[in-house]
Amino acid sequence: MLHNRFGRLAASALAGTMLMGAAACGGSEEPTTTASPGTGATSAAPGGGTTKVGLAYDIGGRGDQSFNDAAAAGLDKAKTELGLAEAKELEAGSGETEAAKEERLRLLAQGGFNPIIAVGFAYSKPLAKVAAEFPDVKFAIVDDAEAKAANITNLLFAEHEGSFLVGAAAALKSEKNHVGFVGGVRVPLIDKFEAGFEAGAKAVKPDIKIESTYLSEPPEFSGFNDPAKGKTAAEGMFDAGADVVYHAAGGSGGGVFEAAKAANGKAIGVDSDQAKTAAEGVRDVIMTSMIKKVDVAVFDFLKSVSDGSVASGPKVYDLKAGGVDYSTTGGQVDDIKTKLDEYKQKIVSGEITVPDKTS
C-alpha cells in the first residue's frame, strides 16, 4: 500500500499529477491518499474507451466482503462491458473529517474523472459541495437522498423490504424464538434494516424475542469496520439465548459470523451473498443474506452515463425492481423458500407495507 501526504494547497495545485498515485484518504485535514489494496490506485479497462470513472469507497473499501465489494463488482462489470478508459478507486479512512472526503472527490474531479461515484451516505455534504464546484461532472451517491443537484444521481434502496424477508427467515428457522440484530452505526439508514428485520420476524412469530445493538454512535463510524466489536456483540446475543443473528455492520459482520460459528448458531449476512464472500471457515453458518444490489445500481449509472440517458435525482431499487432480495446459497432456506416468496409477493403487491423506521 502506497502512502503520500499532501497539504491542501498542494493538492489543489498538483491534483492532476497526484491522482496518478493517490488513493484512500486518512482522517485529518491533510488527507493521506492510499492505493486500494489489491487493485492499485488506477486500473486501465479493456475496450479502449474514453470514460474515466472515479469511485470513492466508504470505510472498509474494496475487500470488506459486503457493501463496498458490491460497488466494486458493479465497477468491474463496467470495466469489462463498457470499455472504460480508466478507473480509479479511493478509500476512506476511519474517523476522517468531511473535509477529507471533500478533498478525495475534488481530486478525482480535478483529475478529469467523470463520472464519479461516492459510496455511502457519509459523502452527502462533501458531494453536494464538490458537485457545485464541477457542474459538468456527473456524480452519483449510494444511500443518500439529501445531496441534490442537476449533476447528482441518488442511488437508493428499500433495505427494509429485503430485511423483512430475512427477518421472516430468522423467525421461521429459530428454535428458541429468540433472534438478534447487530447494526454498525446508529443512523437512520441502518435503522431501516432493523425495522424491516423486526417486522418480518414478528409477522411469523408475534411473540418472538428480538435483541438489537449498535457498535458505534455518530460521529464515530468505526462500527462498520470492527470485526472484534461485531464478535463481542453477537457473542452476547448467543449467550443470552438467541440462535440467529442478522448484521448490518459492513466489515464488522465477519466477527458476527465467528460468534455464530463458536455458538453453533446461525447468522444472516448483508448487502452481498456472504455465503460466497465471507471467510471460508464461517460460510456454513450464514443461512441467508439480505442482498442489496449496489453492483446493479453502480453499473446502471455508469451505463446511463455511457449511453447519454443519465438522470439526476433519486433512483430507488426496491423489491419490485429487484434491487433487494434474499440469498439461497447453501440450501439452508430451501425448506422455507415458498413461505418467503409468499411474503415477497405480498410486499410487491402492496398487501404488506414494511415500516422503514423502528417504533
From TrEMBL:
Lineage top rank: taxon: Bacteria
Subcellular localization(s) per the UniProt record: Cell membrane
Presence of keyword Lipoprotein: yes
Entries under Gene3D superfamilies matching the protein: 3.40.50.2300
Coiled-coil intervals, chain numbering: none
Keywords for the protein's UniProt record, in alphabetical order: Cell membrane, Lipoprotein, Membrane, Signal
Pfam families, sorted: Bmp
Protein name per Swiss-Prot or TrEMBL: BMP family ABC transporter substrate-binding protein
